[in-house]
Amino acid sequence: AATEPDEIADTTAPDETADTTAPDEIADTTAPDEIADTTAPDETADTTAPDETTEPDETATATTPDETADPQAQFATAYHEARRLANRGQNQAALESIDAALAINPLDARALTLKADILYARGRYAEALKYANAATSERRTYAQGWLSKGLIHLELGQPDDAKKALSRYLELRPDAPNARDVKRLIEAP
């Protein structure tokens, strides 16, 4: 098997063409199963009589984005959830989340590349290549798309196409942390 991407994280260099669809990073300091409690201690007093019960608010959903919310916010939520799931190896759930993001913005190079990476991890190389091609066509300066495309071509036994894509990646990211490894792939017979 060819080299697999070390991570599915977005490695866009700061000087690359900006994608204004969603922020590159959204800090999440809350643990996945933890809900931050921001109420002051005195604000949580229970005023319900002992024999009364309160019904839960059935409209409250902590993890589902509001259907009326800003599409950019919905995109960002779905995209980052897909990255989180993919990094945990939960590729089927990641595919569902990235498909939700792509339904909102089908031309986002980061989302197209992430879908390619998830499909790559599942061994669906021909399908992954379609998404990597779409990503690099949509945003020619998105280095991560070229890296993914190169690795997919290697997996498909297409070394010439792989070397072209990997060379483009290095043109865009000559100082990438993985530049030496990528150069070795290009120089391999």
Structure notes:
- The chain has 189 residues and is an all-alpha fold.
- The chain is built from 7 helices and no strands.
Described by the principal axes of the CA atoms, the overall outline is globular
- Give the quaternary arrangement of the chains: single chain
Provide mean pLDDT, rounded.
76
Helical content stands at 40-55%
What is the succession of H and E elements? HHHHHHH
Brief overview:
By secondary structure, this protein is mainly α. The protein is built from 7 helices and no strands.
How are the SSEs ordered, and which strands pair?
Elements: H1 71-87, H2 91-104, H3 109-121, H4 125-138, H5 143-155, H6 159-172, H7 179-187
Helix pairs in contact: 1-2, 2-3, 3-4, 3-5, 4-5, 5-6, 6-7
Characteristic terms for this protein:
single chain, 50% helix, mainly alpha, 7 helices, 189 residues
